[in-house]
Amino acid sequence: MDAIADGMYADQMTPFMTLSIETGMRKSEILSITKDEISRTKRGWSVTKKDTKNGHRRVVYLSSRAVQAVQPLYDGIKAKPDNTPLFSISSHTVENWFVRARDKAGLKDLRLHDLRHEAVSRLADKGLSVGAIANQSGHKSMQTLLRYVNASEKDIRAKLEQDI
After folding, report:
1. Torsion angle (degrees, nearest 10) of CA 82, 83, 85, 90
2. Which residues form the Tyr recombinase domain (predicted)?
3. Which of 120, 138, 152, 163 pairs with 19 at a CA distance of 20 to 30 A?
4. In degrees rounded to 5, what are phi and psi of residue 37?
5. For the chain, what is the radius of gyration of the CA atoms?
């Protein structure tokens, strides 16, 4: 994240990366978030995606860390029309800056899509049910979802020792 924070588009890339890791949303879903898709309630913030890859409407709940990251972007579009995009960067810009930051950090094998895998694994580590993880990440197939979850030996052993 430090390599991203140093870049020219840090004000956009830092929230993008945070949303990616915190929610497991696809790049296209994040970049297409509009003001009217963001709900702010006493319980917290969420993003309602009406047109997803799987063709289903989905509500993605935002962690406090994700809210903190997108708040400045939201504040910048608050007075604008409902269909105003939250992000003003293109998919191409995201890819280019990710590659630069990745290379700067010495992580040549890391792909942008790996953040989605990381997000799903983190949601599992937090103890969310498989259904909740599928909702957050937009996976329709449990088989596909399970390919994203990377359970560690340490985590498995710790869970096996827990009393119910």
Report:
1. -170
2. 1-161
3. 152
4. -85, -10
5. 17
Structure-token pair, residue 28: 């296209």
Q: Which residue carries 């935002």 as its tokens?
A: 62
Domain edges within the chain:
2-160
What is the Cβ-side half-sphere exposure of residue 44, based on CA atoms within 13 angstroms?
12
Q: Give the pLDDT mean for 79-108.
A: 93
- What is the distance between the alpha carbons of residues 116 and 22, in angstroms, rounded to a whole number? 9
pLDDT tens track for 24-62: 898 999 999 999 999 999 999 999 988 766 667 889 999
Phi-psi category of 129—alpha, beta or left, where left has phi over 0 and alpha has psi -120 to 50? Answer: beta
Helix (H, G, I), strand (E, B) or coil at 147: helix
- Which stretches of the chain are assigned E, i.e. beta strand? 38-41, 44-49, 58-61
CATH class of 2-160: mainly alpha
Q: What is the DSSP string of 31-72?
A: HT-BGGGEEEETTEEEEEESS-TTS--EEEEPPHHHHHHHHH
Tokens of 154: 């340490």
